[in-house]
Design goal:
With 387 residues, the chain is of the alpha/beta class. The protein has 12 helices and 14 strands. Helix 4 crosses helix 6 (166-179), helix 9 (253-265) runs parallel beside helix 11 and helix 10 (279-285) runs antiparallel to helix 11 (290-308).
Length: 387
């Protein structure tokens, strides 16, 4: 019974792509930034071969890595979660999603206010943690919704859980999703609930993404159509709007998602378990918290060898990322970077997979592993693994 466990370490990039200048990300390097922290300790990822990847020798190479190793470039036109995951699932995005550096136009805000019965405040690009500091008091006093965006294609709605119950906030997001269509079809509408008092607001774990359905066929569609299980852990189901997914585990944060992953690896199923670990990006990258980011990767490192001990002989485990979010950068936005690629299995070779031209090579490899001949993009590297 074949299984693949695909871990996406959200935003753990490993150096700027050649076209980074186009995205304002020259010199971005998430991994190098966090490696300078005293909280950075990843001996198990090093054993797997992370330091053997071209450009990461500063982490330390090993003579006999436990996994095959390489790195992936992104060819889609973007650097966000949605586009990164789509490409990883074999769907290339040639056209970027719309962005709103000056805030959303009046016709969108007016329609949203009418749909929710609440006024909107802010309506500009903002850091998620700063926006609740600066607008939280007004929100508490008036009940107005904090709407903001970023360099990514997102319509984000922040509201205090005592003012707007979480389920109501989700309904507001659904209303926004219906409004944001056509040329205004942003990649994601995101619920950003928070709690606390003035001066000590903090975001809760009840974030939820309302993504556009994929604009083409993905690996998830083709696997599920061929009778394979597709288990989505964390925000994976939200990213793909539930399409092609046979079971969704809506866990929040790295700790819950790892716990859910351990439950899945102990189960008998045949197919893909697709896991997103969001804290690297949400809690640390966007907040320029180098030490927090480094500590989070170190926590993942502690778990990974235990996880490997539960793998069956025929299983594959793939570790990668969807983009960068360099916490050492002056910006708080995502960064256009290469992503790491580690592939472990008890019966595969430990070799260099080299530099893959697209994240979609991961999808092509997984489909070949399951014997599915689909129409997705990508070039399989399964032959490198001796399979």
């Amino acid at each position: 019974m074949k299984r693949v466990f695909l871990f996406v370490l959200d935003s753990v990039g490993i150096g700027a792509l050649p076209d980074a200048e186009k995205f304002g990300d020259v010199g971005a390097d998430t991994m190098r930034s966090i490696s300078k922290s005293d909280k950075f300790h990843i001996p198990n990822l090093i054993k797997l071969g992370l330091g053997n990847i071209k450009g990461l020798s500063y982490l330390g190479e090993v003579k006999e890595p436990l996994a095959s190793f390489g790195k992936c470039a992104e060819i889609s036109n973007g650097k966000d979660t949605t586009i990164g995951h789509y490409e990883m699932a074999g769907l290339i995005s040639e056209n970027p999603f719309p962005v709103y550096p000056d805030g959303f136009p009046d016709y969108i805000i007016s329609a949203f206010e009418k749909a929710t019965g609440r006024k909107v405040i802010c309506n500009k690009p903002y850091s998620g943690t700063e926006v609740i500091k600066d607008y939280g008091k007004e929100h508490l006093e008036t009940g107005a919704l904090i709407v903001y965006t970023s360099a990514d294609s997102v319509f984000q709605i922040a509201a205090h859980e005592d003012i707007v119950p979480t389920e109501t906030l989700y309904k507001y997001c659904e209303a926004a999703r219906e409004i944001l269509v056509g040329k205004d079809a942003v990649a994601r509408v995101i619920a950003r609930p928070f709690k606390g008092n003035i001066g000590s607001f903090e975001r809760t774990a009840n974030r939820r993404d309302f993504s556009l359905p994929p604009h083409g066929v993905t690996m998830l569609d083709e696997l599920s159509e061929n009778g394979y299980d597709v288990i989505a852990v964390g925000k994976i189901s939200d990213i793909f709007s539930g399409r092609g997914i046979t079971r969704a585990v809506h866990s929040h944060g790295n700790k819950e998602c790892m716990a859910a992953s351990f439950e899945c690896v102990k189960e008998d199923f045949c197919g893909l378990c697709f896991i997103n670990l969001v804290d690297f990006d949400m809690k640390y990258g966007h907040r320029n918290d180098v030490d927090g980011y480094a500590a989070a990767l170190s926590e993942f490192d502690k778990d990974i060898m235990n996880f490997i001990s539960f793998l069956h002989d025929e299983d594959l485990m793939i570790i990668t990322a969807d983009h960068g979010c360099d916490p050492g950068d002056v910006s708080t936005d995502h960064t256009r970077e290469y992503t790491p690629l580690l592939v472990y299995g008890k019966n595969i070779s430990s070799v260099s997979i080299g530099e893959r031209k697209s994240f979609s090579d991961i999808a092509a490899t997984i489909e070949e592993f399951f014997g599915v001949k689909g129409k997705i993009a990508g070039k399989s590297f399964l032959s490198f693994l001796g399979r």
